[in-house]
Amino acid sequence: MTAMLIGIAFGFALERAGLGDSRKLAGQFYFTDLTVFKVMFTAIVTAMLGVFWLARLGVIDLASISVPETYLVPQLLGGLIFGAGFVAAGLCPGTSCVSAATGRADGLAVVFGLFTGVLLCGAAGLGDGHFYNLTPRGTETLPQLLHVPYGVVVFAVVAMALTMFKLAERFKAAS
Amino acid sequence: MSRPQAYSDPYVAGTGLGLVLLASYVLAGRGLGASGAFTTVAAKVINAPSLHQSQWLLLEIGGVIIGGFLSALLAGRVQWKVERGSRMSLAFAGGAVMGLGAVLARGCTSGLALTGGALLSVGGWIFMIAAFAGAYALAPLVRRSWL
What we know:
Number of strands of chain B: 0
Number of helices of chain B: 6
Structural class of chain A: mainly alpha
Radius of gyration of chain B: 17 Å
Helix content of chain B: over 70%
Number of strands of chain A: 2
Strand content of chain B: under 5%
Oligomer: heterodimer
Distance between the termini of chain A: 46 Å
Helix content of chain A: 55-70%
Order of helices and strands of chain A: HHHEHHHEHH
Shape of chain A: globular
């Protein structure tokens, strides 16, 4: 039940932002619409600050939140491949579901494409094996990797995001 | 239906999305996801145990479909919209390529970039940077399809 409620809120937020529209997402990669960047980094900063302060104030225990596992090489290569597919499709897995749900035929095509791709990967056994398990780093985080305090990395990400938001707004004013 | 409303301000919608992600961390002990729902279904269809499976993600994606539809309905933005054949082909092909990337990386924009990004996961940031790099690298080749 929690899963579905969180999903409803997730889909609602994506649609409100306009991220069910493939042209809006694709605009990010031609610098004609920076909504993807703005929404994504506002969300990351919001959730990051929320986790940091709730943990610092003792409201939540950081150990109770599961951190995605890192596998450096597969995630680097997988990311590059994913990005190439993303700009061709104009939607990512989550936004393709929103796009299809709002009646867009290309969203539905992305959903079918994704399913086909994943199915072929499963048939080829790509979800396991030597390459898949290369360079494991467990639940390593940037503060651990860089040997810098958690708060310092949080501050750096906020500073970077704010700088880029400012550039994005200046860019819009200039164009 | 009345004229569709304009989309929300990206910073407002982004804050909303961030609060949903935060709620997921606190209430479920985990972040959001999307590609994992596709692998869950695929694993069942062809009995491929190597693919990642998560009942939680399947329910969550069911919610995403409902939530996306409700939001669009309330704003008068639901409409059947068909695209040119070339755009449909690229949408399908791009989706399949993303599927490969997401399987190799163990996640997508939701499960790695957003969820891992806000938790400062090393893999989350590597994936995010690589995905933007891959998209910008291929963008000139598919430009005609968009502009």
